[in-house]
Queue: 2 jobs
Job 1
Amino acid sequence: MAFHPPAVADAKAQKALDAAVDVPAGPANVRVTRSVKRRKIAEGLLGAEVITEAEYGNHETFQARCTADATGGVAGEEEPAWFAPALAAALDANIAGIKADIAGIKSNIEGIKANLVNINARQSNMVAIGQSDPLAPLIDGAGNVDPNFPATLGALNTIMTGPALTASLTFYGQEAEGSDEDRRTQFKKFIGIRLYQSESMGGDSYSPKRQIEEYFFVAGGIRNAWGAACSWLLVFKEDLM
């Protein structure tokens, strides 16, 4: 009996499937191996939203038919009454799992993007010296900017009060500490401002120890973002294989 691999609507996807895996008429064990590989490629195309869930389901069904034929189970077009509902239920569960995995990957990619945006913002804020110098806003994991984020260094130094500082720290998931000035210092360090620059008009001197701490703060953010990016790229690669 002839086994014909299912087709997909997207011409480029169809070409990629045919070029990557040819499913021969026989022997049966080779056909099963090739149908599995073809289904995995289709899974990756589904994750990339190139083919539809129905088209991916056709590849699942084709793999099941090839496997059943090779193992002496259900073969050809004569499936029993229970086969189609059982296969449909299994496909629904698999597709739901794939959707959840893709949603998780997308969420983590957004988190990585937020880390990279914040690294750039902190690097920009490190050079803020004058009270009128603009500050680059940071974003949270969902890509949102604190609506109360100060526009300039002067606004942060003079306009932001204790409640506003507490609200901004909380917005970014930071626990507010100490007095109003402690929270102002905490917020400055969090957004990347080099403290000696904002204190140069009067206040505590800038010690080498503080400078080292600030450099390590920024370097730690870069390291964490890079590590997260590498980890999730590996996960994404494994999901497509």
Job 2
Amino acid sequence: VKANIRSNRMTQNLDALNQLRALRGSNSSENSNSSDLTENIETQRKEEAMKRIQLGKKRDFLLEEARAITKSHYRRCFRCVNIIRPGNEHDEAEFQDREGAELRYMDDSLSTASYNEGFSMSLPVDRKNELSSRANYYEEWMRENFHGEKDCLEANPWHEENVIRFLELICRGEKKRKWILKDYKFDDVYSNQFDHERLDEFEKRARALLKDTYTLNGWVLRSDLASDDFSSMDEPDDSFFDDDK
């Protein structure tokens, strides 16, 4: 009986020892898994931080490129204002037509007794003032448009609407510049100086940056939901600048 009791006790002790070893092994495994999980999370955080730094550098490069494109376009528009400032043969012809019409009106009025009844309200021709006012108007209009939208790419990170807005402003600005010169019958000496290839390259890189930025932040691009073409989204009505207007 005593031998059986001793044997049972030894068996119980061995079982307890095995359970303790198993428990320690389990705790060690859990600690190892927890350590691995923490290490993986930290690695992911570092990788994400590195991606954000890389995207920030790409954005900074594209921002400088956008500034260069904008400055070039601004200088071209400013030079066009100076082109129209002194006027041209078409302006002089219109001035002469108005002066002739005014003289004819005066002659007709003086030759009849109804001069006081038909007093002309049209202003006399003032070439210098009219040409200066026209040029100053477009110069001020140009400055307001450029300065009013100068921060459209200042957001960090960029959103899709920021890039769309910039591209829209540059393209519409060039179209308006051409239209104004044509409307006043001036030769466009800068017609071939708009760098379409540079703007296309900017758009290509901006698209790639937006895609990576949205993927990293878990956002969805508007172009993925609707159209993959910036130019087709919220297109403004430019019919006023059509040739037949």
